[in-house]
Write a structure and sequence with these properties.
Layout: E1 8-10, E2 12-14, E3 17-19, E4 23-28, E5 35-41, H1 44-61, H2 66-82, H3 84-95, H4 99-119, E6 127-128, E7 139-147, E8 150-154, H5 162-174, E9 177-181, H6 187-199, E10 207-209, H7 214-223, E11 227-233, H8 236-245, E12 250-254, E13 260-263, H9 269-281, E14 293-297, H10 298-313, H11 333-348, E15 352-355, E16 359-360, E17 363-364, E18 367-370, H12 377-380, E19 387-393, H13 396-404, E20 408-409, E21 411-415, H14 419-428, E22 433-436, E23 452-453, E24 456-457, H15 462-468, E25 470-478
Parallel strand pairs: 1-5, 8-9, 8-11, 9-10, 11-12, 13-14, 13-21, 14-19, 18-19, 21-22
Antiparallel strand pairs: 2-3, 4-5, 6-7, 7-25, 12-24, 15-18, 16-17, 20-23
Helix pairs in contact: 1-7, 2-4, 2-5, 2-6, 3-4, 3-6, 4-5, 5-15, 9-10
Length: 483
């Protein structure tokens, strides 16, 4: 595997400048365990300095005309398009995401900033018909959308460039400034993007990248009264903690999932197997909407298990920078150990390991488990690994009950040719999005994305994030002559 050229020291980016930190830590490749870079570890004071820089820059970006914000975002689109291969290699190196999926992430990131550039020019309110009330006669009213101020963005490792774009894109479009704390394992993507924004002409201080421990950087951002909103993607436990500490700050929390798909008795197994492979095993299953649970009707269960097993065994494991690699290392050794322990728990409780369940050169093989008790961790918790369970059901009613028997509710899918079953699923599934004749892993970057229960609060997708990142202000004109 080819590492980044040298093990360089990466500083913080505050007020448009590189800022040294009192301490640095070595960033290691999840695949080779070799050093990639030395990463700055910000302390509380430096984090507060970043917030101060963002607060000052808010005055600049909030008064910038919409067309200028759009132009900056369009220039980022152009620059990232020119450097797409470099960006994909950064993602693959720091996260072990196979390069084929890293390239897809870069393409989606470009599209996300493109959507943000477009939305920057159509942020508007509405007129209010005050004369609908007798006491409103003679008055004219309308709403405006105003930026909030400093936004604290805390992002995860699994989509280190695109999920950052879902924070930065709408923030810039709406005229907010940002203090960004990327995941400790994947800071290079964020630093790379911040450099592109500077090159694109974004005023200094509008984006500040502060790397370091969540217990220091994250806590400081959350507790500082100058930060008006926290947008977070990560685990439910951390998200719930943020919600408890945020006070009256606005929060958007994109949290966990154990996404499921239902296969009705009329499902053409051959047509859906490859799609389910993508849903379950892309990025080693480290996707919030990764396909973790399959509930297959008894009429198609055996055929699906057999064909799914055959397809899974053909996936190539190895170096994430090789074009034909489909599955590489999980983000850390601890995550690998956890996933193996959950597989072992399933085995000890009567589940059958159809394929996988072991390491090959440190990489967890794509794992299929059947006959799984719904209370086992591989079913009821978020597995975040290349593990999928398949259970047999006798009816759609039974399958719906299994899907809903979860603390999560992000997305779910159903394959069926019966329109009534599709409508029933769309009404009864307790999730943020229902996919008819598709896996729950589908996402495009302008759709409203978010869940219910412990899957979080608020919605992403640029238009919807714009609404989250602005405050509605009402203006009322009294024209006089009111009787």
């Amino acid at each position: 595997m080819t590492e980044l050229n040298t093990v360089v020291k990466k500083h913080l980016i505050i007020n448009g400048k590189e800022v040294e930190a009192p301490k640095y830590t070595t960033l290691y490749s999840p695949y080779t365990n070799g050093p990639i870079a030395e990463i700055a570890m910000a302390d509380e004071k430096i984090t507060k300095d970043a917030i101060s820089a963002a607060q000052a820059a808010f005055k600049v970006i909030s008064s910038m005309p919409a067309y200028k914000k759009s132009e900056i975002l369009e220039r980022v689109v152009t620059l990232l398009t020119e450097k797409a291969d470099e960006a994909a290699e950064i993602i693959a190196t720091e996260s072990a995401k196979p390069i084929i999926f890293a390239k897809v992430e870069v393409a989606r990131t470009i599209e996300t900033y493109k959507f943000a550039a477009e939305e920057a020019k159509r942020i508007h309110g509405e007129t209010i018909p005050f004369d609908a009330s007798p006491s409103g006669v003679g008055r004219v009213g309308y709403t405006l959308r105003k930026p909030l101020g400093v936004i604290g963005a805390i992002t995860p490792f699994n989509f280190p460039m695109n999920l950052v774009a879902h924070k930065l894109g709408p923030a810039i479009a709406t005229g907010n400034s940002v203090v960004l704390k990327p995941a400790s394992q994947t800071p290079l993507s964020s630093l790379f993007i911040a450099e592109l924004f500077k090159e694109a002409g974004l005023p200094d201080g509008v984006i500040n990248v502060v790397t370091g421990a969540g217990s220091v950087v994250g806590e400081t951002i959350i507790k500082d009264d100058r930060v008006k909103m926290i947008t977070f993607t990560g685990s439910p436990s951390v998200g719930i903690g943020i919600r408890n500490k945020a006070g009256l700050k606005k929060t958007t929390l994109e949290l966990g999932s154990n996404a499921a798909v239902i296969l009705d008795k009329d499902t053409n197994v051959q047509e859906v197997v490859n799609r389910c492979i993508v849903g379950a095993f892309s990025n080693q299953g480290q996707v919030c909407i990764s396909l973790q649970r399959v509930y297959a009707h008894r009429d198609v269960y055996s055929a699906f298990v057999e064909q799914f097993k055959t397809a899974a065994k053909q996936l190539k494991l190895g170096d994430p920078l090789q074009e034909d690699t489909y599955i590489s290392s999980l983000i850390s050794e601890n995550e690998t150990k956890r996933a193996l322990s959950w597989i072992e728990e399933a085995k000890q409780n009567g589940a059958q390991i159809v394929t996988g369940g072991q390491l090959t050169n440190g990489i967890l093989e794509p794992t299929i488990i059947t006959n799984v008790d719904p209370k086992l961790k591989v079913s009821c918790q978020e597995v975040f690994a290349p593990i999928v369970i398949i259970n047999e059901v006798n009816s759609i009613e039974e399958a719906l009950a299994y899907v809903n028997d979860s603390n999560y509710g992000l997305q779910a899918g159903i394959y069926t040719k019966d329109i009534n079953q599709a409508l029933r699923a769309s009404e009864e599934l307790e999730v943020g999005a229902v996919l008819i004749n598709d896996i729950p892993t589908f996402r495009v970057d302008h759709m409203p994305y978010g869940g219910v229960k412990e899957s979080g609060t608020g919605r992403e997708g640029i238009k919807y994030a714009v609404e989250e990142m602005t405050e509605l202000k009402l203006v009322v004109w009294n024209r006089g002559n009111v009787e």
